[in-house]
Each structure stands twice: as structure tokens, then as C-alpha cells.
Amino acid sequence: xxxxxxxxxxxxxxxxxxxxxxxxxxxxxxxxxxxxxxxxxxxxxxxxxxxxxxxxxxxxxxxxxxxxxxxxxxxxx
Length: 77
What we know:
The protein is of the alpha+beta class. It has helices spanning 16-26, 47-52, 70-76; strands at residues 2-7, 32-37, 40-43, 60-66. The longest helix is centred in the N-terminal third of the chain and has 11 residues, at 16-26. It starts with a strand and ends with a helix. The model has no long low-confidence stretch (mean pLDDT 94).
């Protein structure tokens, strides 16, 4: 498993368009991709779950990838 922490810098947070770009980027990978924020573990390949988390600007998130292509998935995320 590999992971990285970052902050959401988009003024509108992780709303529909940025969530769509994120999901589209990580979906092709076989590895599982999880976003950890505010104690929640979110499946980053599901746009509906990602948007429902209401991740706002300035929120620190951790992206975890686990699987055969985890390094590439993390670089894309």
C-alpha cells in the first residue's frame, strides 16, 4: 500500500467536475483507491460517494492505493 496526503485547493472543493476528473483518472487502474478524510474512508472510484463526502477547500485528504499498479495509481491521483 502507498499513500500521500494533500490539501484540496479548488475554491469550490471536490465538487462535480474535479471529482469526475479524479474518478476518471483512477478508474482504469486495478488497484483500489481510497480517499481518507475526516475519519471516513471513501472509494475514490465512485463519483457519487466522493461527491457525497462534501470535501471542501482546505480539507486535508489522504489518498491510499493498494494493488498491482498502486504506484501509478497514486501518481495519477
